[in-house]
Amino acid sequence: MAYETIIVEVDDDVATITLNRPDALNALNSQLLGELAQALTEADANDKVRCIILTGSAKAFAAGADIKEMSEKSFVEMFLGDFFEPATEAVAKVRKPVIAAVSGYALGGGCELAMMCDFIIASETAKFGQPEINLGVIAGIGGTQRLPRYVGKAKAMDMHLTGRFMDAEEAERSGLVSRVVPVKQLMEEAQSAAAKIAEKSMLASIAAKQAVNRAFETTLDEGLLFERRLFHSLFATEDQKEGMSAFLEKRTPQFRDR
Ligand code: CAA
């Protein structure tokens, strides 16, 4: 499918989706969100793809939901239209690992989109924020729920109530991002992480992703049981036999997702 607001590239086994509305700092309008939902669904269904990278430009990952598009909307239009839903559902449904590679502004819906990914690699210029309070609203695609899970209540409240931005160094210190690299190395770092993930058994990758995500949804006891059952079930796979034999035989495993 031809997209106008995103660019999709599939290289080896990694799909890179680049948000591409440079004139609006990649603000999330309904066209972009629709295209993103479609591209994520296609990448997840593509057997060749083993990991997905979501990125923006050097200046902005995304500066939030599109304020121009939203500004005149009524409650009824927002309620019935819920134009964020297809994309948020699509991100949540992706079974393959998704890395957010963030440079520049990740604000409002941009910060929320990055947090929906499995982990965030940031460039030194990244700035995260939930400045919706400055517009007389609050976060609408998960910011009040996900940010405290990443950085704790104190910083999340601070960001949501004051609208201040968090730079990359603070974001790494606070647990919002997993690594920070110079801006020129951002894509190289994300691609190298994606390539590492792509080498693994997809069965184990999906199980790991589901188990970690479960930690945010359930009690410790239930989460531990869920993890143990997934761990046990992986012993029914050829990839477990291959992975452990390869270790013992001091060779590189050849996983086949079986
Ligand atoms: N929506 C629509 N357009 C946006 C936008 C947004 N969220 N953010 C930036 N733009 C547009 C600007 O209007 C401007 O367009 P024009 O040239 O046509 O005027 C262009 O992008 C460049 O922006 P600036 O001139 O403002 O660039 P800057 O470098 O001076 O400032 C910025 C950058 C600090 C990110 C500033 O653009 C800004 O504050 N943007 C808004 C951030 C924001 O409030 N985000 C939250 C949106 S609401 C939301 O996301 C709700 C939700 O949770 C679902």
Main features:
258 residues; alpha/beta; 2-enoyl-CoA Hydratase, Chain A, domain 1; 6-stranded mixed β-sheet; 4-stranded mixed β-sheet; 12 helices; binds acetoacetyl-coenzyme A
User: What's the CATH class of the largest domain, please?
Assistant: Alpha Beta
The CATH homologous superfamily of the largest domain is called 2-enoyl-CoA Hydratase, Chain A, domain 1
Structural class: alpha/beta
What is the 3D shape?
globular
Q: Percentage of helical residues?
A: 40-55%
**Which strand order do you get reading across the main beta sheet?**
1-2-3-5-7-10
User: Which residue ranges are poorly predicted, with pLDDT under 50 across at least 5 consecutive positions?
Assistant: none
Give a written overview of the molecule.
47% of the residues lie in helices and 16% in strands. By secondary structure, it is of the alpha/beta class. It has two domains: 6-198, Alpha-Beta Complex (2-enoyl-CoA Hydratase, Chain A, domain 1); 200-249, Lyase 2-enoyl-coa Hydratase, Chain  A, domain 2 (Orthogonal Bundle), CATH 1.10.12. A six-stranded mixed β-sheet has the order 1-2-3-5-7-10, sandwiched between helices. Strand 1 and strand 2 (14-19) form a beta hairpin. It starts with 5 loop residues before the first strand and ends in a 10-residue tail after the last helix. The site of acetoacetyl-coenzyme A has 22 residues, from helix 2, strand 6 and helix 5. Acetoacetyl-coenzyme A binds at residues 24-25, 27, 63-68, 84, 105, 107-109, 112, 131-132, 135, 139-141, 143. Could possibly oxidize fatty acids using specific components. One of its GO terms (molecular function) is enoyl-CoA hydratase activity. It is an enzyme of class 4 (lyase). Its EC number is 4.2.1.17.
